[in-house]
Design brief:
With 316 residues, chain A is α/β, with parallel strands linked by helices. Chain A has helices at residues 10-21, 41-46, 62-74, 92-100, 117-120, 130-143, 161-189, 196-202, 212-223, 239-249, 255-267, 274-287, and strands spanning 2-6, 25-29, 53-56, 80-83, 105-112, 123-127, 153-157, 291-292, 298-299. Mean pLDDT of chain A is 94; it is low at 304-316. Chains A, B, C, D: Residues 290-316 are annotated as: Disordered.
Chain lengths: 316, 316, 316, 316
């Protein structure tokens, strides 16, 4: 079948290749002329036979919202739009409405697999109507991993369910990565473990904790043993935050996922953690313990303080 | 080669089968006569040609310690003992000493793979001397998964390193399982997700979070959709605790693993959490908010309290 | 001065008393005629001399929003409205706009102190313009604790700052209460501690951890030693959630406050934790470990499983 | 009464002063001659009338153990030794045995109050026999805060109970301090809060979260607004670790206290967190996301990777 594909970045370009390998025709649009098949979104729409299918693969938030708005003006009743980006699921209902008012269908599709998806296939989680899912099934089949459809593809529920599932997927991902990270840190700290990299490699087969992420971590350790080249600065791209917010909304405990998220926050605190500065200052106040100043020297160690804190003067 | 194997329980019996499939001769001893090849540990030793190799596969702590003590009296210089159970790594040095004083070698070997190891092979993490590892290599090769030796086997370091690595492996396992658990809970809480089981099955291929544990969780959900048959009561068998204790000893943050461990503790609190009873009582004290009594009724909602807390009488 | 006071519930009624003790005249309105001074909000407004000051002390969200909307229609330019409830700070800017469009001033005031505020005075955190704060200062002075104004009162910033500060205050409160709760649980678990209640009472003077909350916890333990009368079911009223959401928005790690929040969520899970059911099911799947069924019996302990998980068949 | 006091450091010197103010005679011994009353522990013992009472106030672990051993050789049946340091409670039973074998009594006493104890009195938690507690009661009464004995003093249980209670006290302290720290960090992050220090000062009266630690934090903020002079590097002195270890031993969830402990660990990681380096490397591996190198530059952003991870080659 034919597919319009908006966004030919790291993910979009690979997906285009995989879809084409599946025997489909892709008309790709990207604001960067050097990678785009057409000069405009309108040209892309014009190059497709009706009823059309258009896949949006651009950053979530405003960029995706603008695509939806523009497509609502370009497409015709009977066409279908898929948002395959990492949009927050709460954007899906408005997008479905905007398009539905024009008779245009809408699907939200969480896509997992990263840069490996081109070769391995992408895990897909889709939200929307049965009819719209059916329409796009050839594309989904081209993108998903080979083998049983149910292993790598799910029609999870109505509009929003696909991005919700992807959000939870990413939340789990935060937890998994941090669990491996804590284990790695502990192996590093223990002198008995002479071969940290080898230990983690050994875990990749036979063990209970074998996984694709572990394979990748071993690969990273082979490229940079000890991870000496990089800092611990770790961004987060939104879905971990949304997962914790959803956990709060549904009153579901999420200690593991939130710990993983907060650790990333901590890695980015400039000038150190204000919370721990407060703790350090408190230790100094009550116990006269030294604090470390910004130059790393001990300061402030005291004997008996001269006066009571203002509000808790003792009775005598 | 020949191997004496002490302990023919769930793990030991499967390992025996896999070792025999590898072309080796196993003389198994178990206190239960109906599964044992020999009547006593002494008979087992007598049935092996020197230099002997004996593998202990019994519960950690006292049972393993007793085996080591008994073997120290039965074996001869040049023999080697392997502790393949989930012993705490701090037991290894004493065991190595006890045996080494008699000229007997010692290896500690963490074994992962559970009931699936028979077919898939076991992930092995070994601590001890090069010479002792070399001696046992044929057995390790029979047990480990097929393929590259480094994927499924590691000589991690000196005595203790094998159990240390296994302990960290299990700590990671706690974190991984709980991350999936939190994601599962969140999918369950969200009405948009019509197909929870299908969503998790879809994650098993192509996605970033695919793993063997996820495969198993999908399997469990297929057997008992909604996990309606079971309670959330979850034991812990020691290695999660040790991992957190080691994290403390090495001053390594372990928020994810400890959260997973504490969640298991919480699942086993009889009569509810004392900590939250205290919180509930506090809410009642300062705000007059209702508490829930043990019968689930709201109690204690108050208006103005009659007297101040004893120690903080206001100045007026 | 005169004050209109909307909402004469647990908090409002006490505050009215304290304000009147400060020498001011309060015209109270409450939808329950038996506690209301006037028949309607309009009557309340009519009973006040211009320029008026009206204090809203009703539940946050819709009830407060409705009061603001109604007051916008009843009040005159130069009047001032204070929202003293536990509104989310994001409601403040819209409220200020609604009222400001009519020339009516707006302050948001976080009020802490619970049912004890009547006697002890209330801690107040205010957001808004200097002029509006100045106008209400006599009321604030009546409500706040005796002593230095700065100990118990702050003009924290522009509109929204008062409720933001109150939200953070409550987030801290979650963490403090749970820290005491964990300590209480640990004292209970240790047989050496013969006198749990006495130990906590001893902490109320001289120690580093003495506080008003601790005084209250001791009071609760004196009323119900062992807290045997109550369950651990603990509601949350919103501000803990908002605090964690703000921590996420600002990328500030909040491990302690979120742990306290999640523990409350866990106390309210009906039928047990889905996350731990998943963990328990996983332990059964990989290790053949028994699960506990809903009747508390061990089930599912297995020997060798009959088949591999679907997606990870080993190469052989 | 008379008291021998070993250790005249920050705590010991203040305690000596307070005990003397209570009308007692203190013979102090310290290895530093310039602060010591006597030349040796033996001289101290000789200067006291039998039956003697000797208070040890030195660092926990070996220093305290050495004092106990030396006193066992110097004292006589009927004398009593008090360990007032921050010893681990597991040291108490051995100390009691060592001394008890010579007919010497033993008490363990947790002492809280820091450098403020001289003026405010110290909170005391004591373990030991009724008779020994009775013997030392005049000293305890001199040290504890004025007012009701039960507010600031407890005989918590047999030998070990005093240090156990102090350990839990310090664990709670970790949680409390970090809760305030997180709130402080959040106030700092929010532009609406113009007056962070004033907000925290306002919390010191009337609010639910008022406490002595909050008073001290306000004091620290007045001395160094913004805490700009200090780093976030925060030591821990053992009792937080022991508290979490006890929580593990008793299977008591301690998410808040452990989060506070782990945050201190994180503040001291040199070269950044290995766990987050692993997470950052993983993000790069699966998604081609940039990592930050040790110079703070983005590196490693990739397009399609050239080869699959070793162990998860897709079927096609």
């Amino acid at each position: 079948m034919q597919l319009g594909l908006i966004g030919l970045g790291k993910m979009g370009a690979n997906m285009r290749t995989r879809i084409e390998r599946g025997g489909h025709k892709v008309v790709g649009y990207d604001p960067r002329p050097e990678v785009s098949d057409v000069a405009s979104m309108a040209d892309m729409v014009a190059a497709l036979d009706a009823p059309r299918a258009v896949w949006i693969m651009v950053p979530s938030g405003e960029p995706t919202q603008q695509c939806v708005a523009e497509l609502a003006g370009l497409l015709e009743p009977g066409d279908v739009v898929v948002d395959g980006g990492n949009s927050r699921y709460t954007d899906d209902e408005p997008h479905a409405k905007t398009l539905g008012d024009k008779g245009i269908g809408y699907l939200d599709c969480g896509v997992s697999g990263g840069v490996w998806g081109l070769e391995n296939g992408y895990g897909l989680m889709v939200g929307g109507s049965d009819a719209d899912v059916e329409r796009l099934m050839p594309i989904f089949d081209a993108l998903r991993p080979p083998g049983e459809r149910a292993d790598g593809f799910v029609h999870a529920g109505p509009v929003g369910a696909g991005h919700y599932a992807k959000m939870v997927h990413n939340g789990i991902e935060y937890g998994l990565m941090h669990a491996y990270g804590e284990g790695y840190a502990l192996l590093n700290a223990e002198p008995l473990i002479v071969d940290v990299e080898g230990t983690m490699q050994a875990w990749t087969q036979g063990t209970v904790i074998r996984s694709w992420l572990l394979d990748l971590l071993v690969r990273a350790l082979q490229e940079d043993p000890g991870l000496t080249e990089i800092s611990d600065y770790t961004p987060d791209s939104g879905e971990g935050r949304w997962t914790v917010e959803e956990a709060i909304r549904h009153a579901v405990p999420a200690n593991v996922i939130s710990a993983a998220l907060f650790a990333r926050f901590a890695s980015r605190e400039k000038g150190g953690s204000p919370a721990l500065k407060a703790v350090s200052a408190l230790r100094n106040q009550f116990g006269g313990h030294a604090m470390q100043n910004t130059a790393g020297k001990n300061v402030g160690e005291t004997g008996t303080p001269l006066q009571n804190p203002s509000n808790t003067a003792p009775p005598n």
